[in-house]
Amino acid sequence: MDKIDCIKAFICVVENGNFSKASTTLGITRDQVAKKICHLETSYKTPLFVRNTREMYLTPAGEKFYQHCKMILSEFEWATNELISEQKYLEGELRINAPHSFSQTFLTNIISDFMAKYPSIMINLNLSDKFSSIDEKNFDVLLTIDHNIDKNNSKVLSEHYCRFYAAPEYFEQYGIPQDLNELNMHSLLVYSQMNSNNKINLLKKNTPEYLYCSPKLTSNNGDVLLELCKNNQGIILIPDFLAIKEIELGNIILCLESYSSLPLYFLAKTPKKRSMGKKAELFLTFLEEHYSIFDEA
């Protein structure tokens, strides 16, 4: 039997003077009220009331218990109201870590819409391309680009691939490579987190291939690589989400279309060591409404 319900019944009996009036106030039968009082007395092995045919009054232990119960019930109701208010009128800080380049391209408008919908939530947005631990950094949500998926605490929001691009003027001057051997004759500008010991893992129509190269430049910033590419400094290998706008503007062109990197997943991660808060849950739902969820089946 629920202790809080029993305490409510006990307080109601004390304040109404008998079981009958308490049952009317609570909207339950007299027997149900009596069972709740009996449950308390049995649980604590102490009589709370002195009952006879003429009257009913509190025992000394019942009097003390009543005073404490009033405080307990008051605190419980305050906590309940605060919780309901927090769920209905969300406020406070939401701490997000996100990739710098991806955020500039896609995330700004989403966060703007989220802020408009939940004006009482304060966003603390940290932009970093480092793959840092969400628990160490104490964020509520960590948005990241990764080849790997942690199924325990990650939601996949979208899937991307790195491809080769260069400026039209560069291709006019140096020609368009037709295969990886020809690619090695060009100046390569590579995202640094993809280049390991001068070996880059690629796919050609879902078949693994490897590019062994000595890039002219490596950088952990996609915007820098794009600017150098637009200045005819070479062929870049960058994620497709960074290339979209520049392709639409005609500033860069895709080459070696049959080649791509291994899949890159845009992930939303939450802390492993603590439960996800309501603000984080709302933000993840908001993100999911803007991205196609990757079908792992």
SSE layout and pairing:
Blueprint: H1 3-16, H2 19-26, H3 30-44, E1 49-51, E2 56-58, H4 60-88, E3 92-98, H5 100-117, E4 121-127, H6 134-137, E5 141-146, E6 154-160, E7 162-166, H7 168-174, H8 180-183, E8 188-191, E9 199-204, E10 207-212, E11 217-219, H9 222-230, E12 235-239, H10 240-248, E13 253-255, E14 259-261, E15 264-269, H11 278-288
Parallel strand pairs: 3-4, 3-5, 8-11, 8-12
Antiparallel strand pairs: 1-2, 5-15, 6-15, 7-12, 7-13, 9-10, 9-14
Head-to-tail CA distance between termini = 45 Å
CATH class of the largest domain: Alpha Beta
Radius of gyration, in Å, reads: 32 Å
The overall strand count is 15
**In CATH, what is the homologous superfamily of the largest domain?**
Periplasmic binding protein-like II
How would you name the oligomeric state of the polypeptide chains in this document?
Answer: single chain
Would you identify the regions where 5 or more consecutive residues have pLDDT less than 50?
Answer: 293-297
In short:
With 297 residues, the chain is of the alpha/beta class.
Structural notes for this entry:
- By secondary structure, the protein is α/β, with parallel strands linked by helices.
- The chain has helices spanning 3-16, 19-26, 30-44, 60-88, 100-117, 134-137, 168-174, 180-183, 222-230, 240-248, 278-288, and strands at 49-51, 56-58, 92-98, 121-127, 141-146, 154-160, 162-166, 188-191, 199-204, 207-212, 217-219, 235-239, 253-255, 259-261, 264-269.
- It has three domains: 3-88, Orthogonal Bundle (Arc Repressor Mutant, subunit A); 92-159 and 266-288, Periplasmic binding protein-like II (D-Maltodextrin-Binding Protein, domain 2); 162-262, Periplasmic binding protein-like II (D-Maltodextrin-Binding Protein, domain 2).
- The protein has eleven helices and 15 strands.
- Strands 4-3-5-15-6 form a five-stranded mixed sheet, with helices on one face.
- Helix 1 (3-16) packs across helix 2, helix 1 (3-16) packs across helix 4 (60-88) and helix 2 crosses helix 3.
- The protein is rod-shaped.
- This is HTH lysR-type domain-containing protein.
- Residues 1-59 form the HTH lysR-type domain.
- Pfam families: HTH_1, LysR_substrate.
- Keywords: DNA-binding, Transcription, Transcription regulation.
